[in-house]
Amino acid sequence: MTTGRDGFPGYPRLDPPPRGVRVYGGHVGISLTRVDLSGADDRAALTAFLTSNTFPFHVRVRPTVAQVENDIRAGSWDGDDVETFWIDDERDGRVGVIRLEDLQDATVTVDLRLADGARGRGFGSAALSAATHLVFSHHRGVIRFEGQTRDDNVAMRRVFERCGWVLEAHYRDGWPVEGGDPLASVAYSVLRRDWASGSTTPVPRGPEVTLRGELRCADAAEAQRVRAHLAEHIALTRAEPGCLSFDVDPTDTDGVWSVSERFVDEAAFDAHQRRVAASTWGRETAGIQRFYVIHGRALDADALIATAWAAEETLLHPAVRSNPRELNRLLDPEFVEVGQSGRRWTRDGIVAALGDEPGTDSSPLVEERESRLVGPDTVLLTYLLRFENRVSRRSSLWRCDPTPRCLFHQGTPVD
């Protein structure tokens, strides 16, 4: 017998682990022993194990004797491309079973089950580490070792991550549930080259980047520029290799378009931004107001905060304050303001009041800006405002999903 990686004893590569023989053990106290389903003892033991324990995150929570016996006869637990091993601990004895499937493929999959009383004690991580070494040592054609579990199976996900496996996929409604609706599942894997080198190759593609929001024109001239160049802009963007979808549609409000974008990752989104900046569309529509919320990139927080500040400054302009339609667009239906006198205003009340007295200062001075995220899409702004010969400290709470809406505002005069 030769010595394998991490000190585990190993058999020559490509030789199948003999049935009924302990093939891996070591300082962790765990050994894997090939189940011998040609004998009555192991058939009975496997049936007893699977029917006397519960597996809440498997499709069958507690299989019946008949189900297990049928699966054994069908070759689900042993065969040309399936190997099953007992998980034994030197102190606690038999603690579980681990099944390796698709052994004749380049990707092998794992099914790990621990006895009810053996969970939460580190056996899962030790067994998966041993099984990983076994797979790559004995099956030279295997390049990936993969496992799937339910998305809410936190314990198993921790086992994968402790063993250096990488989250590769999330499947909506991907896990059947006996007697219920399917639930989400996740897939983890480890690569042969990472196992051999002790490194981790990250998943190269980051999450999708999405953008939602509105393009708002201040006048008919801006709207005409949008109409003149929009078709070409859409066609060029949809032709970009990283673009998943791109839609710019007119809303019920003249001069306002809704925008929805999806790109495969941050690099594709940034490439799109660079192309647009140098394009005819970019030049012709520069300066037109955009209220966007971006998700899936490192600058999410900065983008949300910038969106909230732009909306706050828009609310200070007399042309907006005197326009009920714009105010209703920027203020949440549940908006509340506590005025400088202490009066509490609703959205309807403040829209009516500002319509009568919108103010005349079109260049208010905003100083001492501070901002922070207080939720996934909610931003708190505080600042000092010099407005129409008055000075006040202001705070606003904005929710930006998809367009900015002010939830709360308060102003306190500064003597």
UniProtKB/TrEMBL annotation:
Residues 33-184 form the N-acetyltransferase domain. SUPFAM superfamilies: Acyl-CoA N-acyltransferases (Nat), Dimeric alpha+beta barrel, NTF2-like. It comes from the Bacteria. PROSITE patterns: GNAT. GO terms for molecular function: acyltransferase activity, transferring groups other than amino-acyl groups. Gene3D superfamilies: 3.10.450.50, 3.30.70.100, 3.40.630.30. Signal peptide: none annotated. InterPro entries: ABM_dom (IPR007138), Acyl_CoA_acyltransferase (IPR016181), Dimeric_a/b-barrel (IPR011008), DUF4440 (IPR027843), GNAT_dom (IPR000182), NTF2-like_dom_sf (IPR032710). This is N-acetyltransferase domain-containing protein. It comes from Microbacterium testaceum.
